[in-house]
Amino acid sequence: xxxxxxxxxxxxxxxxxxxxxxxxxxxxxxxxxxxxxxxxxxxxxxxxxxxxxxxxxxxxxxxxxxxxxxxxxxxxxxxxxxxxxxxxxxxxxxxxxxxxxxxxxxxxxxxxxxxxxxxxxxxxxxxxxxxxxxxxxxxxxxxxxxxxxxxxxxxxxxxxxxxxxxxxxxxxxxxxxxxxxxxxxxxxxxxxxxxxxxxxxxxxxxxxxxxxxxxxxxxxxxxxxxxxxxxxxxxxxxxxxxxxxxxxxxxxxxxxxxxxxxxxxxxxxxxxxxxxxxxxxxxxxxxxxxxxxxxxxxxxxxxxxxxxxxxxxxxxxxxxxxxxxxxxxxxxxxxxxxxxxxxxxxxxxxxxxxxxxxxxxxxxxxxxxxxxxxxxxxxxxxxxxxxxxxxxxxxxxxxxxxxxxxxxxxxxxxxxxxxxxxxxxxxxxxxxxxx
Length: 435
Known about the structure:
Blueprint: H1 10-21, E1 30-37, H2 42-51, E2 58-64, E3 67-76, H3 80-88, E4 95-98, E5 111-115, H4 125-133, E6 142-149, E7 152-160, H5 165-172, E8 178-182, H6 186-190, H7 226-238, H8 249-261, E9 276-280, E10 286-290, E11 302-304, E12 307-308, H9 311-315, H10 321-324, H11 331-334, H12 340-358, H13 362-378, H14 388-393, H15 411-423
Parallel strand pairs: 1-6
Antiparallel strand pairs: 1-2, 2-3, 3-4, 4-5, 5-7, 6-7, 8-9, 9-10, 11-12
Helix pairs in contact: 8-12, 12-15
């Protein structure tokens, strides 16, 4: 290829610079993020803030995709991904970045989340998971990121946009609706307000007519937003066959099917019933939105209190595991599937996911491509959880970082056996969903 020197007039240069600055940061195959703090002890400050639940963060200069941003507020984020890294003495911790008012990263994003691939030696679980989920329902934009702090290379991260205005506008044409984050506070779970049931995390159980009984189990922007959530919870309990005028039932069933096929138990399906949002559009209809897939493909083992699934259980996780395990406190799942018409759609969704992605090894081709692009950067890591050898083995073999830690099954090792199980399951021998 021959390159020719390009001469631009000053006005054209400004136009080109403006256009480049506006490029979407998620269009890159691998996003480059450089963070620079004035404070030399930035890690200790951010760690202490996180441990004390202080979200103040530190101001930093940040370059994303080659474009600079001043006064970006940076803090540590996450729960197990943060505490697991701290416990292991690893510097590769997860970040949350937010630009100052009036400034945005390319593509219109004010916030950027950088996950540290905790319990994912493959470094692609979230990338692959959202690629698959995005075939069937709205998802945030996501890509791999290489991250430096004060010119020190920390390693390969997964960059994700928040479920916020840019995503809502892209998928729903407007961000004027009601967004509910289905994420609980452990203090509320353990100590419900006087007179309120304990509640099973963010499962949409009906807990009565008082909004205070739902506070701490969900996050809403305005007090009046509780009314719609309570109405939905009551409808699920009393008349699940009629909830189609309140929530996008087909999208809910896709969410359940995807979580089940991909053995994503760190979701509504598993013990903590979380990692999803609901967006109520202008017509008043709620749409479920999957969030946080870093532990998909068997990275998390908690199904219900006192029950953890091992590798054979993951391979043969039943499409109706909720019924077998008597998970009655999951009404968005159990109550819907008591309705025959909804149950039939759910089975078709399961079969469609298997046919589209796993029976033909399409997921594996995508996984191989993703890993190939990341391999040179993984090989340079010195602060990560896993070695480059773990990365190379993780797609097809179980990886265990130390004798004290749980094994992490290889993605293909799990899904090839799981696909055989599902393809032969009597509930899935049905015609694909027809658009």
